[in-house]
Design brief:
Length: 34
């Protein structure tokens, strides 16, 4: 985090997790987290 911007990765166990993790991804985008 050298530039002061938060960086987040979403790690899933399988493609089937995307339905749930998409919601988390959308929230992160709403907060401006890449």
């Amino acid at each position: 985090m050298e530039n002061g911007k938060p960086l987040v990765n979403i790690v899933m166990g399988s493609k089937n997790d995307w339905g749930t993790m998409k919601l988390a991804s959308d929230v992160l985008k709403d907060f401006g987290v890449p």
